[in-house]
Amino acid sequence: MSINERLKGLVDQMPEADGRGMLTENIDKEKIERAIAAIHAGGVEFVGGLIDMLAEPGSETDVKPRYALHALANHVLVVKDEAARKQLCETLAAALDEPAAAKLFAAALEDSDREIRVAAAAGLGRLGDPSAAEAILKVADRAQGWERTQVTKHCVVLAERTAAAGNPQAARRIYDHLLQSRTDAAESHVREAARRGLAALDRSGRS
Fold first, then answer.
1. pLDDT grade, residue 119 (50/70/90)?
2. Domain boundaries of the chain, sorted by first residue
3. pLDDT for 121-162, tens place per residue?
4. Phi, psi at residue 173, to the nearest 5°?
5. pLDDT per position as a tens digit, 162-171
6. pTM of this prediction?
7. Mean residue pLDDT across the chain
8. Are the C-beta atoms of residues 174 and 162 closer than 8 Å to each other?
9. Phi, psi at residue 112, to the nearest 5°?
10. Closest CA to 69 of 86, 93, 53, 90
11. How far apart are CA 2 and CA 13, in angstroms?
């Protein structure tokens, strides 16, 4: 049996959506947990396979793989598998690193799972799409702890990519926001990164 067939069989064990689109059908907690554990054991190949199975959010074909992806993000936290958590975030960001994924990333910024939000921020940062600046800064501003640190880092990446793509005005807005909003002593490194970014723009003569 191929990896795709094994993964599909595991994803098929996820809950069915009812007529309202709610995941209230075919809830067998133990079966689902076993399936998610097996997906976890499949490593990066299964994570990539899950991503390939995603479709238009809310569509019938998207429900189960999206549920499995969310459940996997929770599972690696519960079992305290830091390597798998990092791998999940990196695989999400790398596999979806294309302009067509921008809408999916933007929607995922509002996900209830912080791992998904951070992965979405990473993807948007890598894309360097200036239209994502407001949304990613909003998430970074309201986040706390580890999530705030990670999403803020991806804001800096977005500014760098945006400047490199020839949009210094958008990059400057991001740097200015970070410089003005990160006033805590613990975030002095963010202010310093913003200052360096602004200085680089000034040196290049880009406004």
1. confident
2. 1-95, 100-207
3. 988 898 888 989 999 999 999 999 999 999 999 999 999 999
4. -60, -40
5. 999 999 999 9
6. 0.61
7. 85
8. yes
9. -75, -15
10. 53
11. 17
Beta bridge partners of residue 25, listed in sequence order: 16
For residue 15, the 8-state DSSP code is P
Question: Is pLDDT of 2 > 60?
Answer: no
- The class that CATH gives domain 100-207 is mainly alpha
CB of 2 closer than 8 Å to CB of 12? no
Output the DSSP codes for 123-189. HHHHHT-GGGHHHHHHHHHH--HHHHHHHHHHHHHHHHHHHHTT-HHHHHHHHHHHHHH--SGGGHH
The model's pLDDT over 44-65, given as tens digits with 9 standing for 90+, comes to 889 888 888 888 777 888 889 9
Are the C-beta atoms of residues 124 and 162 closer than 8 Å to each other? no
Nearest to 191 by CA among 170, 206, 169, 176: 176
Angular region, 26: left φ>0, alpha ψ -120 to 50, beta rest:
left
